């Protein structure tokens, strides 16, 4: 495996770590209605756990209310149960046709708790990035032994691996800071 292949493979894995972090951060409630908060909600549909977003149209009515319109009106009770079971901190209100989720403003205490969760997600992503760096370094050492690479080439490869790691850690820090600001904004 060449140094370029090692860097390409590692960069792809680091990109996936960043994408997963952004996806996870999108599920954190910030006081504004965001349909992505329902991505992890699974509804028991005839004995099969099915993602809510495959069973209903989800729309934002105003800045603080989500409206869930099931394609099959007979499963409204199951959708309500799934939302309660998901522990989103929101109680569903149903009129028999649609379910409304009203997002109350977050308290200062809740905002601080969410900030801790955001930072923990960021730290987990940094650990994942560092694990990818370790794997890249291991691959580089294997390539050095297998192909008898010169010391300068190996040193250059290690520098490139570290630069890639630093770049993705910086992206994580910026993403976390942005989400912290979003959570703390009233």
Number of helices: 4
Distance between the termini: 51 Å
The main β sheet shows up as: 4 strands, antiparallel
Shape: elongated
Number of strands: 6
> What order do the helices and strands follow?
HEEEEHEEHH
Low-confidence stretches: none
Task: Work out the radius of gyration.
Answer: 22 Å
Helical content stands at 55-70%
Strand order of the largest sheet: 3-4-6-5
Q: How large a portion of the residues is in β-strands, by DSSP E?
A: 15-25%
Helix/strand-derived category reads: alpha+beta
Write down the overall mean pLDDT. Answer: 88
Structure description:
The chain is built from four helices and six strands; from the N terminus they run H-E-E-E-E-H-E-E-H-H. The model has no long low-confidence stretch (mean pLDDT 88). It is 58% helix and 15% strand. Strands 3-4-6-5 form a four-stranded antiparallel β-sheet, covered by helices on one side. Helix 1 (3-26) runs antiparallel to helix 3, helix 1 (3-26) packs parallel to helix 4 and helix 3 (108-147) packs antiparallel against helix 4 (151-184). It has helices at 3-26, 76-85, 108-147, 151-184, and strands spanning 42-45, 48-51, 56-62, 65-70, 92-94, 99-102. It has 186 residues and is of the alpha+beta class.
